[in-house]
Amino acid sequence: MSARSAIEPAAFAELVAIVGPRNMLTADDERATYERDWTGRFVGHTPAVVRPADTHEVAAVIDVCRRHGLALVPQGGNTGLVGGGVPLAGEVVLSLRRLATVDPVDVVARQVTVGAGVSIAAVQDAAAAAGLRYAVDFAARDTATVGGTVATNAGGIHVLRYGGTREQVMGVDAVLGSGHRVQRLQGLVKDNAGYHFASLLCGSEGTLGVITAARLRLVTRHEHRVVALVAFADVATAVEAVAAWRSILDSLEAAELFLADGLALVCDAFGLAAPFAERWAAYVLVEASAHHDPTDELAAAVAVADIGDVAVATDATRRAALWRYREDHTLAVNTLGPPHKFDVTVPLGRLAQFVDEVPQRVAATVPGARTWLFGHVGDGNVHVNVTGVAPEDDRVDEVVLTHVAEMGGSISAEHGIGTAKTRWLPLGRSADEIAAMRAIKRALDPDAVLNPNALLPPSV
Ligand code: MLT
Ligand code: ZN
Q1: Residues 298-327: pLDDT tens digits?
Q2: Is residue 345 helix, strand or coil?
Q3: 383 touches ligand 1 (CB under 6 Å)
Q4: What is the pTM of this model?
Q5: 51 CA from centroid of ligand 2 (Å)
Q6: For ligand 1, is residue 66 a contact (CB within 6 Å)?
Q7: Phi-psi region of 237 (alpha: psi -120 to 50; beta: other; left: phi over 0)
C-alpha cells in the first residue's frame, strides 16, 4: 500500500482554516473510532480526521490534499466490511457525517435530496413521514450513511424487488479527485445529456470522487406487510422454493437464507428462543408487502413448496422478532472474534452446491476454522463468514474467492472490493476492464488523492 502518513505544518494549517480546529480531530481518543472498522479486522492509523460541513469545504480539503500530496479515505458511518473506509496506510480520514441535511420530501416527484452524512434510517423516517418509503434497507440502517451506501452501491434485503442503491440514485452532488464538481440533483427521470456521473460514482468506493449529497428515489408505502419464517430439510429445496415464490408472488420483497448453525449461534448469543421445536437444515425468511393483505397469497405460495415448518407474523413486534434471527447473524458471528467476511454471488442453480462445499474447503485449508453462511437468496448473494482465522491469514480468502470464480460467480455482491479484496479483482475482471478502470481513475483522480489503496490492485 502507498502510505503518506504525516501532515506537514503548512498543509495542517490550511486544513484547520477550512474546517475549524474543532473539526480537525488529532487526539488518540478522538481518532480511534475512525481508524478501526466495525468488525475489528481492519485497524489503521490516521494523522487527522477532517470533518467538513458542506461541499465547498470538501472541495477545499481535496484541493489542499492535491497540492500537498496527502491521501484521503472518505468515511461515512464506518459500517463497511472490506477495509475500504479506514486509513490502513496512514491516510487522512475525510468524515462526511456533518453533511446531514434532509430536504423536504418532493412528494410529486417521489424523491428526496439528502446530505451524505444522513443515516439510512433517517431517510426511511423522512420518507415514511411523507407517506412514502426508501427501498434500501439492511441491518446497519441506523449507522450507515447515504454517502457510504452510494459509494459502495449498497444492496440489502429488498434488492429482489427494488434493485440496489444504484437503482435509487437519481443524481448526486460530488467533488471529483480532479477538483471538478458534479452537481446534478434535479431528479430528472429522463436525462441523457452526457455521461451519467451518478451511476459511475455509485459503487466507485470513494476512489473517483466524494459524494456530498444524493437525490434518492422513493417508492410506494404499502399498508400491509407480512413475514414468514420457513424451514427446509436442505438448501436445494429452499432455493427451489424461493425461485417458485418469485414467479407467483408479486408482493415478495425479501427472501433471506440462513442455516441451522447460524440460527443456533444467534439464539445463544442473544438468548432467543428457537423458532421451531425441531432443528432444520435451512431457513428462509420471506417478507411480502402490498396495498391489500398479502397473508393469504403468501400462505398459498408457501404451501406449494416442500417445507418443514413455518411461522407467520403480521404485527410489527412479531415481524421484528422473526427478522432478528436473520439480521443478528452479523453481530453473533462477531462475538467469536473478527471474521473473514465474503460477500459473493453464485448462479442460483449452483448455490446449494456452493453452500455445501465451502465449509469443507475452508476446514481443509485452516483446520478449526468455522464457516457461517447466510444471505439474500433471492438474488444469489451468499455471505460467507469464517471465524477462527487470524485477520492477516488470507489462505481462506484465496480458497473461497477462487471457488466463487470457478462457479461463475462474483467475488463481491454488495460489500465491494475495499482494500481486502483488491488482490482477487482479476478473478472477476479482465485485464482490459482493469486497465479501463485505471484510466478512469487517472482521469478523475489524477493525483491519486482519493482512497488510493481501495478497489484497484496495486499496479506492477
Ligand atoms: C447482511 O446482509 O447482513 C450484511 O451484508 C452484513 C453482513 O454481511 O454481515
Ligand atoms: Zn447483505
Answers
A1: 999 999 999 999 999 999 999 999 999 999
A2: strand
A3: yes
A4: 0.97
A5: 28
A6: no
A7: alpha
